[in-house]
Amino acid sequence: MPGTSAHDPGHGSGQDGELLDRFTALAGPGSRGVGEELLARWGEPHRRYHTVAHLRAVLARLDELAGCAADETAVGLAAWFHDAVYDPSAPDNEERSARLAERLLPPGPRRDEVARLVRLTTTHDPADDDANGAALCDADLAVLAAPPARYAAYAAEIRQEYGFVSDEDFRTGRAAVLRRLLALPHLFRTPHGRAHWEATARFNLNGELLLLTAGPPYARGFPAPVSALVRRASIASMRNCGSVRRGPKISSSCRIR
Prior knowledge:
The chain is mainly α. The protein has helices spanning about 15-25, 30-40, 50-65, 70-80, 95-105, 110-120, 130-140, 150-160, 165-185, 190-195, 200-210, 225-240, and strands at about 245, 250.
C-alpha cells in the first residue's frame, strides 16, 4: 500500500492527463471530474506509499494480468477507488473508499461490483471463484514481490505513513500484518501471480519480519542501507527454511500453507 507530492517525482500534468484518459475510458463520458477528484485524493500530502505512484503501479499490474478478470472495467475502477480514502489512523479506509465509489459512480451492478471489490482489499482474501477479486488483490499486493531496493523503499514509506506510531507499537502491528499474509495458503490468486510473484514475495516478507523482530537498531525502521539488510535477511530466511538460491531464480521449501 501522490496525485501530487514531492514524494512522487514521476508526477506531472502530462501523466495526469494520461491517467485521466484511462479513467474516463473506464467510467465513461462525463466522468473526468470524478477522475480529477480521485487524483486529488491520491495526491494528499500525508501519503508516502499510497500515492499516485501506487495507483499507477496497480494499473500496470492489471495490464499484466489482462484476461484474468471477468469484468476488467469493474476491476480497473476498483483500483482507482481502493485507496481513495486513506487515513493511516483510521480503521475503515476500505469501507469509506467503497462508499465513495457508491456515491460517485452511476447506480447499477457495475458500481456494486466496484464497491464490493474495494471492500475486499480489507483482507485480500477473495473466494476461489472470484476472478475479479483475484486480479485486484494480486495487483495491489504485487509490490511484495518487488526487487529488494524497491521493497525496502515500500517498507520505509509504510513506516513514514505511520510516523505517529511508536517504534514498539509499529513493530508489533506490522509484524502481525506480515504474519497474517504469510499464513495465507497463497499470497496471489491468479496463475500469473503465483508463477511470477509468490516466491519472491514470501522471501521479502520473511526478510522484513526478521528485521522487525531482530531488535535495535534494525527494528527501529528502515535506514538508508536497508536494501542490503533486506537481502541479507532474505538469504538468512532462505537458509533457515532449507531454501536454495541458484542464479537469478530462487527455489524454496519455506512455504507457509
